[in-house]
């Protein structure tokens, strides 16, 4: 199979892993789909309607979805649809650059990655490429090389996502009877990230992960995806596919919010399956605290020990190196 010059050598890397491990040992679990669902849809106009009853209804819907699903989608979110289209256009232009340029030219804080360098067998491999950029670096003109039009759009995009993420996080904090200022004190643009994802089409198998099963390690994530499906999440102990909606943004709870809420809000395992015919694009915004921020539960008795975000990230990195996946919050159970 020929790989276009702009795509990374995913087939080569995957084939190498396949030779090291038998397919029987490393088959992907749970790839057969039982059903396709739509995430709870929340109209955020309710938060700014001026009608107290409508605002409460909207806030309750956000909290309920965060508790029961760990995922929901939002419309009338305040992020311009034109901005989303511009960002997608610039993203596609970036990923169509030659692989050698993406891999060696230090683009976007030298944040380009593909596959999974720590994978030891096929079930740990990501059929994808991505730029994972700290928000502190996106305004640096030197990071963009010849992609000068990307900078202005990305700065605007990050600002819009930051505002939306803080608004949603504030709602979730208030619903647990805490001051919404608490989230702003530990999360700001100095500790958050944008991740630009590209999932090339994969014709060798429909059972390959575009992104392996995982939970997010932040407070919450906002995802903008295209019309190509592939996102799946764990619901009621089975994998379900999520119908894509280009005009809605997907929000999901991360590990830190689950720990802070004392398991009221759920950080749910999810994955992306590769597509045999179509490539897929998405952009994720991650709301994170500073590395020295202490994460403690909002009420007692606490399910989890206190830990810093830096500690959590360190243990995740060590787990991935040693066993191929993260242990997650279970390490910090009381």
UniProtKB/TrEMBL annotation:
Highest taxon, organism lineage: Eukaryota
Similarity remark: Belongs to the iron/ascorbate-dependent oxidoreductase family. GA2OX subfamily.
Enzyme Commission code(s) on record: 1.14.11.13
GO MF annotation, one: metal ion binding
Keyword Nucleotide-binding: no
Gene3D superfamilies xref list: B-lactam Antibiotic, Isopenicillin N Synthase, Chain (2.60.120.330)
UniProt-listed Pfam families: 2OG-FeII_Oxy, DIOX_N
The entry's keywords: Dioxygenase, Iron, Metal-binding, Oxidoreductase, Vitamin C
Source species: Solanum stoloniferum
Fe2OG dioxygenase domain location: 188-289
Record's catalysed reaction(s): gibberellin A1 + 2-oxoglutarate + O2 = gibberellin A8 + succinate + CO2
Single GO BP term: response to molecule of fungal origin
Designated name of the protein: gibberellin 2beta-dioxygenase
InterPro entries per UniProt: DIOX_N (IPR026992), IPNS-like_FE2OG_OXY (IPR044861), IPNS-like_sf (IPR027443), Iron_ascorbate_oxido_reductase (IPR050231), Oxoglu/Fe-dep_dioxygenase_dom (IPR005123)
């Amino acid at each position: 199979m020929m790989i276009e010059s702009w795509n990374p050598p995913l087939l080569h890397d995957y084939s190498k892993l396949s030779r090291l491990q038998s397919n029987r040992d490393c088959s992907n679990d749970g790839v057969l789909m039982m059903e396709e669902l739509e995430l709870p849809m929340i109209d955020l106009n309710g938060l700014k309607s001026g009608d107290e009853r409508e605002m409460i209804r909207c806030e309750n819907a956000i909290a309920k979805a965060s508790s029961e699903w760990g995922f929901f989608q939002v419309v009338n979110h305040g992020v311009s649809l034109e901005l989303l289209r511009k960002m997608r256009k610039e993203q596609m232009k970036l990923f169509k650059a030659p692989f050698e340029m993406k891999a060696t030219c230090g683009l976007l804080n030298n944040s380009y990655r593909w596959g999974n360098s720590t994978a030891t067998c096929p079930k740990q491999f990501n059929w994808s490429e991505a730029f994972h950029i700290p928000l502190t670096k996106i305004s640096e003109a030197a990071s963009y090389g010849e992609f000068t039009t990307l900078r202005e759009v990305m700065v605007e995009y990050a600002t819009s996502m930051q505002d939306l993420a803080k608004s949603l996080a504030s709602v979730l904090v208030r619903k647990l009877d805490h001051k919404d200022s608490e989230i702003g004190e530990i999360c700001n643009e100095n500790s958050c990230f944008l991740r630009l994802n590209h999932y090339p089409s994969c014709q060798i198998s429909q059972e390959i992960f575009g992104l392996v099963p995982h939970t997010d390690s932040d407070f919450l994530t906002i995802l903008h995806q295209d019309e190509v499906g592939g996102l799946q999440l764990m619901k009621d102990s089975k994998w379900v596919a999520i119908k894509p909606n280009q005009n809605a943004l997907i929000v999901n709870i991360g590990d830190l919010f689950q720990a802070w809420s004392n398991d009221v809000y759920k950080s749910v395992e999810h994955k992306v399956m590769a597509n045999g015919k179509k490539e897929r694009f998405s952009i994720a915004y991650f709301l994170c605290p500073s590395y020295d921020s202490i994460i403690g539960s909002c009420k007692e008795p606490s399910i989890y020990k206190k830990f810093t975000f830096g500690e959590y990230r360190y243990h995740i990195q060590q787990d991935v190196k040693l066993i191929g996946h993260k242990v997650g919050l279970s390490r910090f159970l009381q």
